[in-house]
Design a protein that fits this description.
Layout: H1 3-6, H2 37-51, E1 58-61, H3 63-74, E2 79-84, H4 89-97, E3 100-105, H5 115-118, E4 123-127, H6 140-147, E5 152-156, H7 160-163, E6 177-182, E7 195-199, H8 201-210, H9 218-229, H10 232-254, E8 259-260, E9 266-270, H11 271-279, E10 285-287, E11 290-294, H12 298-314
Parallel strand pairs: 2-3, 2-4, 4-5, 5-6
Antiparallel strand pairs: 1-7, 6-7, 8-9, 9-11, 10-11
């Protein structure tokens, strides 16, 4: 990994090289043609098998950001509710489209007790696990409580592969549930821009009506198909993340540098220390009193720990 790439710790991208098998069988000449319907259908079947749902519950699109944009187009005249903080694109896109979006402040990184009351009749979004706080916000009991009184509950499961928490088993019971997932995080395909929604066929139909004909490029569809054909590299990467996260958190704790682990692929670190890392060439995302740091590769983890030791000596 090039040094510049290894210092990109602000977007929660995969920090290890992708396996060569992911690129086997790619027909580069295919870019002369529009994406074939059968290729998207093959991926739809793979996603359905992976998620444990009927293929009619799968909608493939160009990244979760694209799904967010499309969601607002579909429900443009509805009232939306989301917690704060949350993935920033939900607010950004709502402002861009002139959508009515109410925000409810998290309390100690948890949804307030009256969240379900405030969600009454709205299209409600819960990022679970949450970005940027990195924790689980909702269990099945709360999810069903929300589903009983919201128009639509959208659960952003971008970090599902890391957390292992999903509400996909509730899809058959609740037609007003939609789940957003992506190939950008644990699958390492951020540049390919592939995501999918799991939802009732009626919701899938609504999203299809508002989307363009060719939603995902041919090469991106091929990469996603190859990724699902053998997910062992994803499992291995998730384990690397957990191991390196533990190393980092333990080292920072020993050095008395404030940090918080997550069930995602990032940690939160003291803002002053994060700014120190930025001064050393790292890219880091900031919010409130924290720097959000993507869990790096083993070698870069060693470098970050060494810098933490130096930072502590200087301060």
């Amino acid at each position: 990994m090039a040094e510049e790439e290894s210092r990109r710790l602000h977007l929660n991208e995969m920090q290890l090289p992708l396996p060569p098998a992911l690129f086997e069988g790619l027909d580069l000449d295919c870019v002369r043609f529009y994406p074939p319907e059968e290729l998207e259908e093959q991926l739809r079947l793979q996603i359905a098998d992976y998620a444990g749902v009927d293929p009619s519950f799968v909608f493939i699109y160009s990244g979760i950001d694209g799904l967010i944009e499309l969601m607002y187009k579909v429900f443009w005249d509805r009232a939306f509710l989301i917690h704060d903080p949350a993935y920033y694109v939900y607010e950004h896109e709502a402002l861009r489209q002139g959508i009515s979006l109410s925000k409810v402040k998290l309390r100690f990184s948890k949804l307030p007790s009256d969240f379900s009351v405030q969600a009454q009749g709205k299209v409600t979004v819960v990022v679970n696990p949450n970005n940027p706080t990195g924790n689980i916000l909702m269990d099945e009991t709360l999810a069903e409580k929300l589903l009983s009184n919201v128009e639509l509950l959208v659960v952003d499961e971008a970090y599902y592969e890391f957390s292992g928490v999903t509400f996909a088993p509730l899809l058959e019971k609740w037609p007003n549930l939609a789940i957003f997932r992506t190939f950008s995080k644990a699958f390492g395909l951020a540049g390919a821009r592939v995501a999918y929604m799991l939802a009732h066929p009626k919701t899938v139909g609504l999203f299809s009506q508002y989307s363009e004909v060719y939603r995902v490029s041919t090469l991106s569809l091929m990469l996603a198909k190859n990724a699902l054909a053998d997910t062992s590299y994803v499992t291995e990467y998730v384990q690397v993340v957990k191991t390196q996260m533990e190393r980092l958190i333990n080292a920072l704790s020993t050095l008395h540098i404030s940090s918080r682990p997550s069930v995602c692929n990032f940690i939160l670190v003291d803002k002053d220390f994060a700014e120190f890392l930025v001064s050393k060439g790292f890219k880091i995302k900031f919010f409130e009193k924290w720097g959000r740091l993507t869990v790096p590769s083993p070698s870069v983890t060693e470098e970050v720990i060494a810098l933490a030791e130096n930072y502590r000596r200087l301060t």
